[in-house]
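Before any further analysis, backbone shapes were mapped to integers, which produced the following:

***
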Amino acid sequence: MFKNAREKVQRRPVDLILCDFQMPKMNGIEMITRLRGYITRQNQLNEMVQLVEPHIVICSAYLNQQMKKHMVSVGINNFHEKPLPIEALDKLIEEAIKGVISD
């Protein structure tokens, strides 16, 4: 899971990552924490080529207040309960685009 995400951000900029909380081998928070750490390390090592910090959204069928606080503390930009209606997905994409344009 992490290896696939890492390979994608190495190849080209990724503006939005939408992932599930519960995934095989590791949860979404762990994957995002590892990915953010990887991006930070790469950007410190190579100032000429900077990897983009993507807007990150995690979806879960079981969100609670403690999970939300933890997600914010590790740099997750947004979270949403499943099922994710198309209107909510549109809004999340708009927010990610606004972040890219303002950077």
Observations:
- The first helix runs from residue 2 to 11.
- Residues 2-102 form a domain with the Rossmann fold fold (CATH 3.40.50.2300).
